[in-house]
Structure to design on (572 residues):
């Protein structure tokens, strides 16, 4: 009477719901990534020194008999834009505070230096900005782009300030430190 | 017997609905402040044709002063051009005086000032008409607001000098020295 | 004989008592003469199911959208291989595609050490640019386990960036993109 205890130990058959993951089969795991590119509309304005600050314009003459002229200065609008497929945007400008009898206009040159990229759109020339009037489009066709953030980067806004219509000249008065405010808006567009 | 069943859930779907939010300021605007200065301006100058023998020069003291040197043989017409920007509520005016030289005792020198020819724009001044020049300053164009006359002949106000001899004037001996007479024009702001 | 029988019964009862005290379960009593111990080769892989969200954006007007990284995901494996063989972890995109104008890379860190053991392999030194073709992430994985904790295993870093923005930036379009990446622990190279 000889009893022999046989103890069979088996470690085996480890299974997976999705993959047999056994022997020669590859085992896999899936991971879903959610990747978002939200729309971006960012705009900032700096002066030609590359910092936020007022631009000083002076309207005067040094020649007797001539009208005052030559109030010129430059600002830069720095923009980051990400649009949905097929969408474009515009930048508009509206102004308040231009002194009576004078006229302000702006010429906008789209950026072209090495610090920008993307679809920067099309600029405009000599767009009159009239106090409290509806905003005027100064750049159109903006897609996904950025302009750069350094001094001299961005949409170049050349201000042209002159005497206004001839009939208004008599309403001009001397002024010091008068501030006009230009509001630039980057719109959703279509 | 030991048996283990290990099950791994290998698939996970993570789905986050992404609103179409706009990243940036709301609204996406920026402001530019333009500091706009229009300094007061008061400038006068003279224009003649190319045959002019009138000379003039700016005073060394104030830019609003212009001295015109005239002499008996000169052409008798000149044009005064000016540019003016005034502060609210004030005006500029132009005055004239003989600043150097001496007229013969029996000669008077008159100045006729036309109205503005209209070549410019704004509130040009009003002529006083005619004066007799002397060493005392006299206004000739007043109520000048912000304006400009245009630059050149036939623009601004025409000035005509008139030499007048007295009834008893008997000869030209008094002119032999041909002493030039300096006439000073000054544009000034009223207060 | 009776004594013999009684003694045998007592002996058997004693033996059963001892067995019950020492091995209470999992015994199989059979007749036979072999002892077999078998360890099957196997390969298991899963992730910690961390949601991976990436967002390309910027908050500075004038600047390009910034590269963004996410290192939340850990890949865990268990692997037993025949002697002298090894496995690899590879990754590819199985659904969705990387948005135009951007690039998505993936890099694996070395396996965490806290709860792991065995031959855990060597991550590739450079990130791979994910595509729909399997690319190597970790080589030379033999018999090992990574641990099962949330932050056990190979930490995966996804990096999403604008691709050559000077020329391609216009292609970047706002939207939400869902991409599925498949990690594969390959069959050992002895097969």
């Amino acid at each position: 009477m000889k009893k022999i205890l046989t103890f069979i130990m088996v470690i085996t058959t480890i299974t997976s719901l999705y993959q047999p993951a056994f022997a020669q089969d590859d085992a896999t795991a899936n991971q879903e990534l959610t990747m978002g590119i939200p729309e971006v509309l960012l705009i900032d304005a700096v002066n030609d020194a590359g910092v936020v600050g007022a631009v000083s314009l002076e309207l005067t003459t040094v020649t007797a008999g001539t009208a005052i002229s030559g109030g010129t200065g430059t600002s830069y609008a720095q923009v980051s834009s990400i649009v949905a497929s097929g969408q474009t945007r515009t930048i508009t400008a509206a102004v308040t505070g231009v002194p009576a009898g004078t006229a302000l206009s702006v010429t906008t040159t789209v950026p072209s230096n090495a610090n920008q990229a993307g679809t920067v759109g099309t600029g405009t020339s000599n767009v009159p900005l009239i106090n409290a009037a509806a905003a005027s489009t100064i750049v159109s066709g903006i897609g996904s782009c950025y302009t750069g953030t350094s001094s001299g980067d961005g949409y170049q806004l050349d201000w042209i300030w002159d005497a206004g219509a001839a009939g208004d000249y008599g309403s001009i008065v001397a002024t010091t430190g008068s501030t006009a405010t230009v509001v630039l808006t980057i719109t959703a567009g279509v | 017997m030991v048996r283990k069943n290990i099950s791994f859930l290998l698939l996970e779907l993570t789905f986050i609905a992404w609103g179409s939010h706009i990243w940036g300021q709301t609204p996406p605007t920026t402001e530019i402040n333009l500091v706009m200065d229009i300094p007061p301006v008061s400038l006068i100058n003279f224009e003649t044709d190319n045959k002019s023998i009138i000379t003039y020069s700016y005073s060394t003291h104030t830019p609003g002063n212009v001295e015109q040197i005239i002499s008996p043989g000169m052409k008798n017409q000149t044009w005064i051009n000016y540019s003016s920007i005034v502060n609210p509520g004030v005006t500029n005016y132009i005055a004239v005086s003989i600043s150097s030289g001496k007229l013969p005792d029996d000669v008077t020198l008159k100045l006729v000032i036309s109205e503005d020819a209209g070549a410019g724009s704004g509130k040009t001044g009003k002529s006083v008409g005619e004066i007799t020049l002397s060493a005392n300053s006299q206004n000739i164009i007043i109520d000048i607001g912000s304006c400009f006359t245009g630059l050149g002949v036939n623009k601004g106000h025409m000035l005509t000098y008139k030499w007048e001899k007295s009834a008893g004037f008997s000869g030209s001996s008094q002119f032999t020295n041909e002493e030039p007479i300096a006439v000073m024009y000054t544009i000034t702001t009223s207060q | 004989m009776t004594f013999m029988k009684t003694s045998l019964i007592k002996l058997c009862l004693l033996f059963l008592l001892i067995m019950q005290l020492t091995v209470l379960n999992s015994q199989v009593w059979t007749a036979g003469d072999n002892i077999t111990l078998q360890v099957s080769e196997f390969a298991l892989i899963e992730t910690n199911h961390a949601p991976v969200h990436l967002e390309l954006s910027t908050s500075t007007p004038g600047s390009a959208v910034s590269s963004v990284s996410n290192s939340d995901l850990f890949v865990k494996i268990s692997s037993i291989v025949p002697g002298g063989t090894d496995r690899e972890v590879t990754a590819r995109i199985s659904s969705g595609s990387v948005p135009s104008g951007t690039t998505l890379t993936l890099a694996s860190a070395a396996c965490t050490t806290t709860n792991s053991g065995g031959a855990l392999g060597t991550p590739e030194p450079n990130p791979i640019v994910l595509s729909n073709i399997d690319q190597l992430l970790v080589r030379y994985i033999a018999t090992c386990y990574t641990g099962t904790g949330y932050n056990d295993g190979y930490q995966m870093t996804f990096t999403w960036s604008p691709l050559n923005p000077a020329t391609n930036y216009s292609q970047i379009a706002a939207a939400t993109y869902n991409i599925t990446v498949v990690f594969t622990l390959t069959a050992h190279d002895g097969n």
